[in-house]
Amino acid sequence: MSELTATPPQNEADPAAPAGSRRLRPPVLVWISGAVAAAILVLVTVGVWIAPYDPMHQDLMNTAAGPGNGHLLGTDSLGRDVLALLMSGAHNAVIGPLVIALGAVLFGTTLGMMAGWYGGLLDTLLCRWADLMYALPGLLVVVVVVGVIDGGYWLAVCVLLVLSLPTAFRMTRSVAAAQARLPYVEAARTLGLPAGRIIFRHILPNIMPTVLATFLLDFVGALIGLSGLSFLGLGAPAGTPDWGSLLQDGQSMLTVNPWVSLAPGLLLVLTATSITLLGDWMYDRFTEEGAHR
Amino acid sequence: MSPAAATDGPLLSVRDLEVRTAAGRTLVHKASFDLKAGEVLGIVGESGSGKTLTARALVQALPEGVVADGDIDFDGTKILQSSARDLRPLRGSRFAMVLQDPFTALNPLQTVHEHIRESLDPKFRAGRVTARAEVERRLAEVGLAKEVADRYPFQLSGGMRQRVVIAAALARDPQLLIADEPTTALDASTQAQVLDLLRTLQRERGMALILITHDLRVAFSVSDSIMVMYSGTVLEHAPASSMSAAPRHPYSLGLLLAEPSVTHYQDTLSFIPGQVPAADTVTSRCAFADRCRWSTPSCTDKAPPLADITRVEDAARHTSACVRIAEIGAQMDDAMRSHAARPGIAPTPTTGAPLLQVTDLGKTYRSNSLLGRRTQTTVLKGVSFTLARGESLGLLGETGSGKTTTARCILGLTAATAGSIELDGVDITDYRRLRGEQRAQVRGKVQVVFQDPYASLNPSLTVGAALSEALSAGAGNERAPSSLEELLGLVGLSSSYAVRKPSALSGGERQRVAIARSLAVGPELLICDEPVAALDVSVQAQVLELLRDIRSRFKTSMLFITHDLSVARQMTDRTLVLRGGEVVEAGPTAQLLDAPEHAYTQSLVAAVSGHAPVTARSDR
Lengths: 293, 620
Hints:
The complex is a heterodimer. Chain A has helices at residues 17-23, 27-50, 82-118, 120-135, 138-149, 153-180, 183-190, 195-231, 243-251, 259-292. By secondary structure, chain A is an all-alpha fold. Helix content of chain B is 33%, strand content 22%. The interface between A and B is large, with 36 and 70 residues.
């Protein structure tokens, strides 16, 4: 039936479309999210240098104290400065999820594009594999694997990476398969271009919004997941500052200095929210542009 | 609400209608017209002319972010000054709308009965039995059997769905029906039937009808008067008979002449050069001046008013916005006359060595349902034909006839399940069996131009990047153009287009780029899959001329896939008529269209010449 859908008169209404949809999400929120993300990024890279104290320094005169005495957010049970722990802990909290999201998107997208492009047996096998992975109770697998092997932070990162693959795979597979049926891709096929060229030059740029959105969503998922593991004592090794383990430490002293738990919790929520909002906004922007092409 | 309009006053009166975006860009400028009860007005225009927005403004159905200004008087109601709440009781009962796409206009989860019942007058809607009877009566009115009431939209053909949409729109007997491109998404023979139905219903009820269309032929077949819009302005408003015989605006004339003839071959296809300007750039001048061969400085000084030029032969008021019409009228009449009196001589079919040989081609899709039951759908059955070197062969057929599948098999985009295809001595039935080098050779010999210019270019690549890629794929072929400039020149684009992205191009320009891409490898066979079906009339002829030019210059063979008889007439030497995956008739195009032998071809020809075949109520 597509053969007879002549002149697209819907275009006449086009000038109206963007104005309405853009107003839905005020850019103010996006600016704030951007600022938060940038601040976190600064902490990740130089947090340990700009922290007010060495995070491992113990102020034994002021253990488990509330804010005050030169400690803006107080100290934990060992007398370590909470603010310093937070600032230098950003590295552990964020680097792992970053690696997970990057890896998942890199491998997942490649597999997804191959499945979407070639179809057939390869597609069927990969999809069934993804189905199987979905059936696994993710966090439980990590807890068991990391707990049994006792591999620490990077093993947890690896396991989480593998567990995030199917989502990235499925997202890109569906959009890549949709692109592969479009006339411009078929025209590239009739020109006799090699598959790799078609996939990376023709399909990939046009599914970038989805890839980017997947990346940011994976990142947020991994941030929460990995901090959860640290909370359970399976993530960051003991003795290194990390938001998840700080959350755990502070539990027992909620009445003495609630900031030990509250601050890393708030930071996690803040980071996850702002990244999600940013990703959402970027996806809208890109697909909107796409619609106007 | 006042009772029915006084006998002589118009049912609908529009004065100085302006449609703007919220940001202030003009989309429709000073449209004024009247419509009497029981009259049919055709609003004709290309995409971007503002015809749809004008019609939507009439019923306060503008998209978000678009505002209308001016006076719209519908039987005593000031539409633009009324609130949505005030208008609600009028919707459906006083005016109703039918939209273009019958495939999305119906809720897939509701039966036909539910759709129509929902639109009925409350006095019928309430009772189960009365509602049922009324729905069946309404279905009968649009020529559908009462069994259809229990079906879901997906069980209906496009024509049947549009009939259901019409039945629902008419369920409360409105005085005014607005139909926005009601037949554009339908096949030609169905199109004729639906138009026929609209006309009959309109006459029986004495209902006013506004028909919005890009197709002058459609407008002529139904309308009493025709209003031509261009770039947001009304250029001419005339009785249909005057418009078809002697249009009084250069643009209307251009549209009429650009329509490729279905009855005879034309040596040169006339077209309107250039492109439609944005509406807000032409509010204080003649919108058409840039593309008009008669334009003088007086045309661009100020916006020309719609002046009354009614003559004795006009059946009703005739207005035109051309300030020079008194001077150029005679020349325009000459152009009309010479256009009609100049049937070219149809080219004699070429009898060269065969380039493409298709034998008993078949394609069957198999699918296994959940319960292991197998279903088979045969889309091609025993299709055989030979295409000579240098020949242009048409594949004519409606939706589902298998014409595109045939092309995809030849291009290796899908594999045939039976038969064989031979191109220049190489068996290409299955591209996967070809050796790499052989496959590359074949790919360089056959290329394709698709229908949809919006999807056939990669949105993220510039024109230059896309074409360079194609050129490098064709490197080494002596038929291939050697440089990007040369390639762009072939399709009539300057080299400045190389840096543009598809989003900055119009539909016609995109199609030119798509043609350039297919020429980049110097193909011997060019498959054109409905290359102009998605383009505006004034641009269609430009692209057809370009393809003719390419054919005569490179002696390229062409396989021309189309549903449009006039395109087949103008572009092909021989034509195959496909129906349900089988060839029903084949022969030299002129002969086939002048004296069709098969009943199906006859019905196709009849549908275009304006008479819906009485026997062809094939919708069941």
